[in-house]
Amino acid sequence: MAGESLSAQLVREQLAKISGTNADDWFLTLKQRFGLAEVYRAIKTVEGLGEIITTPYTCITAVNPIIVARHTPIYADIDPTTLSTTDIPEKLINKNTRAVVIQHTLGIISNPQKLIEKAHKHKLLIIEDSAHALLRFARDDKNEIIADISAHSFGVEKILPGTKFGGAIYINPRLKTERPELYKTIVKYLTTLPNPTKSLAFRVKHYRFNNAILQRTPASIRHNLRNFAIKAKILEPAIYPFEQSATQSESYTTNEYVNNAILKNLSTLKHNYSRRLASVKYYNKNLKSEHFTPITTEEQPLLAYPILFDNTTKANQAYDILTSNGYFIRRWYSPLLYPGPNSNSRYNFDPTQTPKADSISSRTLSLPTDLQNKDLAKIIKLLQNS
C-alpha cells in the first residue's frame, strides 16, 4: 500500500500467511475499535444511517464505534452455549438495519446458520468480531470466510500477551464486486488514518512501564494515582472513563513500535494456541462440580474457559478464592457492555430485552488457558473445594 512502512507491510504479510488470506485484504489500526469506527463510518457514508444488530455481552468499546458513526445499536440475546448471538429475531430487522455482528466470545467460534441465513435474506453486512480469536474466522462448509468484515485485536488481555496495542481489519474481497462503493470507501478510510501523535506514541511505548509502576504502588493510592496519570496524559488505559459515555478517541493507524511488537509476538501464536487448546482439553476432562457447568466443551483454543454458576453468590465466592490465591480470573462480561455504561439510554440498551445475557453475565467466571497443567490442577482443586 502506498506510503506504508516496511514494518506495516510485514505485519500484513504475516497475517495473511498465518490465516491463509491475502495481505492486500488486511488493514492496520492502533486499536481494533478504531478500525470498526471507520467501517461503520463508511457504511453511513455509502448506505446511510441505520441500525447495527449486536450483542450486549461484550465490551463497551465494541459498541462505541457504532455510536460514534451515529448508527443505532440494537441488541440480540445470546446463545448460552456460545455466549454470542446465533440468531436474529425477525422483529429486530427492518429497512434501516445495515449490519449484524458475530462475536467470537472468549474464542468460541460457531457457525450461526440461522443468523447467516437471515443476514443474506435481508442483505445485511456480516461483521465478525474476532478480538478474542486472533486470525480465526467463522467459515462455511467450503472453508470460505463467512463475514464481509472481520476485526482482530492485539490489545490488552487478548490472545498474545506480549502485544498491548494494534488492531487488524480484514475485508472480504467479495465486497469488491458485491458492494464496490462501500468497499472503496472502507479502504479509503482505513488507508488514510493519521499516525499516532507524539503524546500518544509516548503513552503506547511506555504502557508496560507505567502499569508496572502503578502495580507497585500502595493499594490505598493506586486508584487516584492512575486517574492522575490518565488525566495528565501519561498513561494510555485499556478503556478511558469517557468511553463509558458512548464516545471514543480519534482513529489512528499503527506505528513502528506497535508493528514490531506484533511481528515479534506473531511468531509465538502457534505455540500459544497449542497451549490454550491443551488447557481446554484439561478442563474438559478434570473440571467437575455440582455448583457450576462449563459453557462449552468444544475443543477450541479459547482465550479463557467460561464456567456458569448456579447463582451470583457462588460465582463471587469462587472468584474471591481464586484471586486470593494469586490467579487472574476474568469477569467477562459483568456487567453487560463491560465495564458498564454511564447511561443505558445513550446505548439504546434495556437489559430486560436480552434476559439470557443478563442472567448469565453475573454468574460466569472465565478461567485462564495460558497456564501449565500444574496450575490448572490447583485452580480445579480450589474450585471444587469452594
Characterization of this structure:
Helix content is 40%, strand content 13%. By secondary structure, the chain is an alpha/beta fold. Helix 11 (269-286) runs parallel beside helix 14 (373-384). The longest helix has 18 residues, at 269-286.
- Widest sheet, order of strands: 1-7-6-5-4-2-3
Runs in which pLDDT lies below 50 for 5 or more consecutive residues are none
Beta fraction of the residues? 5-15%
Total beta strand runs? 10
Secondary structure layout plus pairing:
Blueprint: H1 6-19, E1 26-29, H2 32-47, E2 51-54, H3 60-68, E3 72-75, E4 97-103, H4 113-121, E5 125-130, E6 149-153, E7 167-171, H5 175-178, H6 180-191, H7 198-205, H8 207-215, H9 219-231, H10 256-266, H11 269-286, E8 292-294, E9 304-309, H12 312-324, H13 355-361, E10 364-368, H14 373-384
Parallel strand pairs: 2-3, 2-4, 4-5, 5-6
Antiparallel strand pairs: 1-7, 6-7, 8-9, 9-10
List keywords for this structure.
386 residues, alpha/beta, 3-stranded antiparallel β-sheet
Short description:
The protein has 386 residues and is α/β, with parallel strands linked by helices. The protein is 40% helix and 13% strand.
